Amino acid sequence: KFKFSILKLPKVEYFCTAVNIPGVSVATRVQQSPLADIPLPGEKVDFSDLEMTFLVDENLENYKEIHGWLMGLGFPKDHAQSREALGAGSDRFPTSSGGNFSSDAGKVPYGATAIGALFSDATLTILSSKNNPILEVRFRDLYPTSLSGLSYDQQAGDTSYLTGTVAFSYLIYEFANINDPRTVESTT
Question: Would you say 158 and 60 are in contact if contact means Cβ atoms under 8 Å apart?
């Protein structure tokens, strides 16, 4: 069993039905030699997407919560949507207006921009057979990249529940020792 929580999506937590621990890969380099090419480990780690499946509640509140986050990232109507996304969640993230500034010289035309509110952290807690937490997987700087559509069907015979799937990108994930939350387990 598991428990999955995303700070920016409180309405999704109790409806989550499936989540994965993403795969990790390292690209292979090749060293040329006269006899045979020698494969060597690459220098960049590539994380697969985090995917979560959730039950959609009756009023679509959890679906709209993710949809709104995606719209704020892409602001398809106007730039005001981007400002609203940056301001959203300031009650849950009081320090988000001052952190994660993008101030790369020459790349930000009007000064530093706070982008912290666009990201969220998430925790996947792995539970034992007795529902005791045994391990945490912590995701940092998570944001949604895709959200599945919803299909309504009048012909469905039995009770069927709407489910949605969302894919997330993130900066990194780490395993944390449940006995000491400050300790991150090394995977080497």
Answer: no
**Residue tagged 């494969």 (tokens):** 39
The 10s digit of each residue's pLDDT in 125-170 is: 999 999 999 999 999 999 999 999 998 888 777 777 889 999 999 9
d(CA 130, CA 136): 16
Helix (H) or strand (E) holding 44: strand 38-47
Which pair of structure tokens corresponds to residue 57? Answer: 């509640």
Sign of the alpha-carbon torsion through 7, 70, 76, 112? positive
Q: In this predicted model, what pLDDT tens digit does every residue of 4-63 receive, in sequence order?
A: 999 888 888 889 999 999 999 988 888 888 888 888 888 888 999 999 999 999 999 999
Instruction: Give the tokens for residue 95.
Output: 């320090």
Residue 47 burial by CB count (10 A; 0-12/13-18/19+): exposed, middle or buried?
middle
Task: State the Rg of the chain over Cα.
Answer: 20
**60-82 as b/e: b if 16+ CB within 10 A:** eebbebbeebbbbbeeeeeeebb
- What are the Cα distances from residue 63, in Å, to 147, 148, 165, 170, 186? 9, 10, 10, 20, 35
Q: At what angle do helices 80-87 and 61-74 cross, to 10 degrees?
A: 120
